[in-house]
Amino acid sequence: MVAGAFPLAKLLTLGARQLSRPLAARIKAGARASPFFRAYICLPPAQLYHWVEMRAKMRLMGFRGAAIKPLNEEAAAELGAELLGEAIVFGVGGLCLYLEYARQAGQARRREEEQEAALREVGERLARLREELDAMAARLPPGHAPTGFGNAPAGSSPAPSGGPAPGAEGGGAGHAPAGPDH
């Protein structure tokens, strides 16, 4: 990969993802220390995660309807802080993916718009050239209008085929007219 072609947006998203890990660790440490954060942010998701995990394990082992004991507060706070940290890292990664997708979609849309504008410009120029050609053909004296010009179907050759060009003297194409020198 060329150093100049390395997209700055990818570098920034990588940096954001790397910064999210220490940020998550810091939030986990704060969650363990704060009673409010611990009771209302960490414990409920941890208990729910524990309940779902244990229920799935019990069903896999064939135990149906067994009561699942909740985690003690310390273990739940630790698990909740881990879940919160992983959710932050996952959220930052998802946000980076979305931003990269939006950036690339915008680039593709701009590229399509540029191509459409260029195609429109070529079409308009072709229409102007046809109008000019028709106007030139209309100015020619009657009987001298070239055939095959004007609104010729696409893919047809506008030049007359076969024989020498009108007004050409002498032999075939690429030959000089025979004169007294020869």
Rg (CA only): 39 Å
Determine the number of helices (DSSP H or I, runs of at least 4 residues).
3
Q: What's the total count of β strands?
A: 0
Strand content: under 5%
**Quaternary status:** single chain
Helix content: 55-70%
Category by helix and strand content: mainly alpha
Give the overall silhouette: elongated
Q: What is the element string, with H for helices and E for strands?
A: HHH
Relevant terms:
3 helices; single chain; 182 residues; disordered N terminus; mainly alpha
What does this structure look like?
It contains three helices and no strands. Helix 1 crosses helix 2 and helix 1 (8-33) packs antiparallel against helix 3 (73-139). The protein is 66% helix and 0% strand. The longest helix has 67 residues, at 73-139. It starts with 7 loop residues before the first helix and ends in a 43-residue tail after the last helix. The chain is mainly alpha-helical and 182 residues long.
